[in-house]
Write a structure and sequence with these properties.
The N terminus is likely disordered. The strands form 6 sheets. Strands 3, 6, 8, 9, 10, 13, 14 and 15 form an 8-stranded mixed sheet that branches. Helix 3 crosses helix 5 and helix 8 runs parallel beside helix 10. The protein is an alpha/beta fold. It has 2 domains: 242 residues, Spore Coat Polysaccharide Biosynthesis Protein SpsA, Chain A (Alpha-Beta Complex), CATH 3.90.550; 159 residues, 60s Ribosomal Protein L30, Chain: A (2-Layer Sandwich), CATH 3.30.1330.50. The longest helix is centred in the C-terminal third of the chain and has 13 residues.
């Protein structure tokens, strides 16, 4: 029986009832700082869901798994409910300050259920396959702990560094070396006891906890596709795998104006240009970067720069406009997208833009992490007409094209 919670569907579980089956414990409490995204990596978009949902569904859909429980960060309940809406799961529980502590707390939450077996899986691995789960469960018939792993095939080198570029210190013998994966399988009572005994230690995975307790850990074949998402490149590869060519192009436009004020230089596209006056604004008044930021936000339907960085907020007074542009680019990447091209037109009589055009292109491309060949900067005048013709300010118009997974 399942109770509809309005988000996750929480499986009913009378206190003290012995399921004598298998529970999959998904560890999703990490912050994923190495990826450098605004959200923990398990909540970043992937295909038609987020990374965590793909990881969970690998077990929800497996006939050998009776129930699934997610261990989350203390601040992530709302994100978790949204990510896993509609799935039939045990209620999520809060983890600790480390992966090891989160695993222990997850196991402790299963004491009243007392499953015979438990699989512990990292939420950052969205592609656990049924065959690997089958092999892990099968080996638990004869072993108290099971580790899916892939044998190393590349030649290994140990590097050394004397303060300069690293050099090769020695070649490491790779025979018998394996790359550990998850889900790692255990007999519940034994891994719970092992985790309690290892509390406070800094062990890297649950198989290491089992080893520390003297448990025999069996090796079974993992899967090269069962990758762990650690870097932005990992996430992009995962998105390409799921998208399978299903992308769409989105276009956004941006327009901005800043009037001249007192000063002796203007900043355009991150380039400071000597001038008899400066542009006035709450931030650094970089009209070019503001227009590009709005174009990117428009392409992904995320409003405008004023919504994300209100001019009424004193935090943004004098802020470099690269902050705003980086934020817009991060939002594109978090949706699995990429910037195809940018086209900016600066509208003014003075200063002259042409001598600084290439510097502006390099500046924009550097902030966004894209090739300069994807950035166009042009300039035009209004033939002396209007406020730009009278030299009262500068206007900028931008068009951005982004590629997003469908």
């Amino acid at each position: 029986m399942a109770i509809d919670s309005g988000a996750i569907r929480v499986s009913a579980q009378p206190h003290g009832y012995d399921m004598s089956g298998c529970v999959a414990l998904i560890l999703a409490g990490g912050r994923g700082t190495r990826l450098g995204a605004a959200l923990p990596k398990q909540y970043l978009p992937l295909g038609e869901g987020v990374v965590l949902r793909h990881a969970v569904c690998s077990f929800v859909d497996h006939p050998g798994i009776d129930h699934v429980r997610v261990v989350i960060g203390v601040q992530d309940r709302v994100r978790c409910d949204a990510a896993l809406r509609g799935l039939d799961l045990l209620a999520p529980v809060t983890g600790g300050d480390s992966r090891q502590e989160s695993a222990r707390l997850g196991l402790e939450s299963l004491v009243s259920i007392a499953p015979e077996r438990v699989l512990i899986h990292d939420a950052a691995r969205p592609f656990a396959d049924a065959a690997t789960i089958d092999r892990t469960l099968g080996a638990l018939d004869t072993h108290p702990a099971v580790l899916p792993a892939v044998p190393l095939s590349d030649t290994l080198k140990r590097g050394r560094s004397d303060g300069g570029e690293p050099t090769v210190g020695e070649t490491v013998e790779r025979t018998g070396l394996w790359r550990a994966q998850t889900p790692q399988g255990f007999r519940f009572a034994e891994i719970l006891e092992a985790h309690r005994a290892a509390a406070g230690l800094a062990l890297t995975d649950d198989a290491a906890v089992a080893e520390h307790a003297g448990l025999d850990v069996a090796l079974v074949s993992g899967n090269e596709e069962n990758v762990k998402i650690t870097t932005e490149e990992d996430l992009e590869r995962a998105r390409r795998r799921l998208a399978d060519g299903r992308f769409e192009l989105r276009t956004g436009t941006g327009f901005d104006v800043h009037k001249f004020g007192d000063g002796n230089a203007v900043t355009l596209c991150g380039v400071e240009i000597p001038h008899e006056r400066a542009l006035a604004g709450h931030s650094d008044a970089d009209v070019g970067m503001h227009a590009i930021t709005d174009a990117l936000l428009g392409a992904i339907a995320e409003g405008d720069i004023g919504i994300h960085f209100p001019p009424s907020d004193p935090r943004w007074r004098g802020e470099p406009s690269r902050t705003f542009l980086c934020h817009a680019a991060d939002l594109v990447r978090e949706r699995g997208g990429s910037i195809v091209n940018l086209d900016l037109t600066l509208i003014c009589e003075r200063p002259r833009i042409a001598p600084h055009r290439e510097s502006m292109i390099r500046s924009i491309a550097g902030v966004l992490g894209i090739e300069p060949g994807r950035v166009s900067v042009k300039a035009t005048t209004t033939e002396g007409l209007g406020f730009t013709g009278r030299g009262e300010g500068i206007a900028a118009q931008a068009v951005a094209t982004v590629r997003l997974p469908v």
